[in-house]
Amino acid sequence: MVLVGMTLVAQRPIPGGFPRNPNDQLVDSTEQEELTDEPPDTILYYSPFKLKQAVFFSDTTLSNVFHQYDVIRYQSIPYAHLGNVGSSYRPLVFNNEKRQGLDLGSHIFDLYKQRYEDLELFESRRPFFIARFGQRNFRQEDLQLEPRLGKTFQNGLHLNLMYRTIQYKGDFLQQITKHHTGAVNFWYHAPKGNYDFILSYLFNDIRQQDHGGIPNAEAFLKQSTYRSNPLTIDEYYIDGRTKQNDKSLSIQNGFNVHVKGTKMGFTHRISTQNSSNTFFDETSSIDSTYYDQYYVRDTQDITFKSNGIVNEFRLDGLIKESSYLMAGLKHEWHKINQGPSQNTLNLLSIIGEYDQTIAGKFHFNGEGQWGILDNLGEYYLNGKISAESKTLGAIEGHAILQRSPVPWMFRKLYSHNQLLYDYNFDKPLTNQLGGSINIAAIGFKAGLDQSIISNTIYLNASRTPSQEKTAISITSVYGDKTIDFGKFHSHHKLIFQFSTNQNVMRIPAWYTQNVIYYQSNWFKNNMFLQTGLDSRVLPSFKTQSYFPLLGNFYNSERAAVALHPSVEFFFNFQLKNFRGFFKVEGLEYFMYYAGKTFYETYEEPLFRTNMRLGFSWILRD
User: Fold this and answer.
1) What is the pTM of this model?
2) What domains can be seen in the chain, in order of their start residue?
3) Which partner for 367 in 264, 318, 353, 469 could form a disulfide, CB atoms 3.0-4.6 Å apart?
4) What secondary structure does DSSP assign to 431-496, as a single string?
């Protein structure tokens, strides 16, 4: 399903199905009660914290990434996982993500999870149902499903249901992934627009088998017996299990007033937050070599649990449709349990956001968060400024300043009540300055990001936490070019990265992605189709290995991987509200000798040639 976010005069495609975050899309500030004249098929959605701004979307034409069923493949930056859909992942380019508040320390599944700030609250006169399905090689054990339901009742009551399951057996033993995530939302919007109430329940249950790596995968796959059925390879390190579980129940109340062209609002949200990260392995004495200093008993059982309450107060206003201002307080109280250790965190942050548009051409957005109590000294400041011109295109500049908390997992760790380590690290610091130019007339975009990071925390070769206090400089240069020639199109992306410490920052020096395809209307314009090749090239570089016991990647000494040119064939089609795709992955294997094995994470072989198919369908009552 491809959605399009738009204002009343502009639109852009949203890749990979549903938008990741409504706040990132183009919006219109029209309030809900002012939309009574919209056509009955109009569907809008809102962010819980920006109910004054609606996002229009419609069931529009295919984008050239419709066939990317994998969540990490339709992000704005490239990621690498463990060779199976839904498995642990990490970014392949430096990504300055926001890290504030409680941080347990494992972010290997974040993109698969449902988060409150990413919720889409739908409004539609007619009930609608959206289904999205994908499957590998026609196997029941390798599939994913994502249904959504939206219904608007009389007097301003809205019901939104969302569920996603990802279940893949993988090509090798001990590689199964099983995800169940979802959200149930009730939203009441008073007919006069002066009150909003949201009751929301979110859950994330993510499970993964862990084999710890297959050290001699290519040697096995050179033999036709193993190549025809990689599941028969039984040489792996461990047979562990990872589970991350999150549950959240939120109640939000909002009161709104209109004063001389200004729409003011006061919002309060209270939410329970329950999270757990668990790794379990019934080991034997043979596994003691793999776990090394973490081996205490035959059974490995590491669990982090947190239970907390979040209170948030916001005062915001939309001033004459061109300025948005928000200021507030966010309080978090968490109780954290790990082994015999019990700790509490009392966090208080000042939060704010300012958004200004001048003459429809100049735009500024700034947001910030500043810690006061146990998070004193932690902050996040993000500012963006842009200008548009019909002749020169769009120019954008941004700056991010952040001091983030030390991840809880890297502070102290117990196994069977035995203390394995206890560190007192300094808080990581990140400064980033960048900009880009986008010339729509020729389909070209280029940009530069300069980042300085210090107090970097990572897992070293012995898989124990370390901190690099010396400043590390990372320079990223990127370009994006679209070429259209009649019914033939191509899209090209190239990224260069330069780091002053390659031993700590394990990122490739460059990365490229290229899509070449044909698109047209067939059968008297009844079917729209796209077909072509999608390729990615990852160079030879020193990558990371994965350590499931801590749910993190680490910098192993032997971690070099060879160049990987990934090639896929895809065929996408659309029949009214029904869309489908068929794709063949792993075509690069036909260009190499039998048994060639590719890696993006050390000793974690990628899946081989596969066929995948899928569809999406939107139904209206």
Assistant:
1) 0.90
2) 4-620 (2.40.170.20)
3) 353
4) EEEEEEEEEGGGTEEEEEEEEEEESEEEE-TTSSEEEE-S-EEEEEEEEEEEEEETTEEEEEEEEE
